[in-house]
Write a structure and sequence with these properties.
Low-confidence stretches: none
Helix content: 55-70%
Number of helices: 8
Largest sheet: none
Strand content: under 5%
Oligomer: single chain
Mean pLDDT: 93
Shape: globular
Distance between the termini: 42 Å
Structural class: mainly alpha
Length: 144
């Protein structure tokens, strides 16, 4: 589809007011709008589009986190392509917005516990605002 279709779908998604505290009680409109954005984009990985909306002031970080958590269940690959993007943001750790979105995603960051512990330990030192979420991931992830 065209870029304008993505822009329209993104604007419609960003107009849905949600918060992480609504989990389990999201409006049906949210799921419909996420589906529209995925369809307009032509791919399941909408992470960069949603992060760009935060950069542009169209959406809050909290909205972005919710949008991407819903997108995992809306796409055709169970979030695999988007997880690759989110893990890349954690590895790079050079953009506070993208890092915050990735760290608050419903899946553990990075494919292995060893890589996650090493990377999140560094991130916790460099980004004090994310120390608590880094420590929580490290404490909660099984040593498998």
């Amino acid at each position: 589809m065209t870029v304008s279709a993505v822009g329209v779908a993104l604007a419609r998604l960003c107009s849905v007011q949600v918060s992480e505290q609504d989990e389990g009680d999201f409006p049906d409109e949210l799921f419909d709008r996420v589906d529209e954005l995925i369809d307009a984009h032509g791919a399941d990985d909408i992470a960069e589009i949603v992060a760009g909306a935060v950069d542009a002031g169209q959406a809050s970080v909290e909205q972005a986190i919710v949008f991407l958590n819903v997108a995992v269940w809306s796409g055709t690959d169970n979030g695999a392509s988007m997880k690759t993007t989110l893990d890349g943001w954690v590895r790079q750790a050079d953009d506070a917005v993208r890092l915050g979105i990735a760290l608050h995603h419903e899946c553990y960051p990075l494919p292995t516990r060893a890589e996650m512990v090493a990377r999140l330990s560094e991130i916790a030192l460099r980004f004090p605002q994310y120390r608590a979420v880094c420590e929580r991931h490290i404490a909660d992830r099984p040593a498998i």
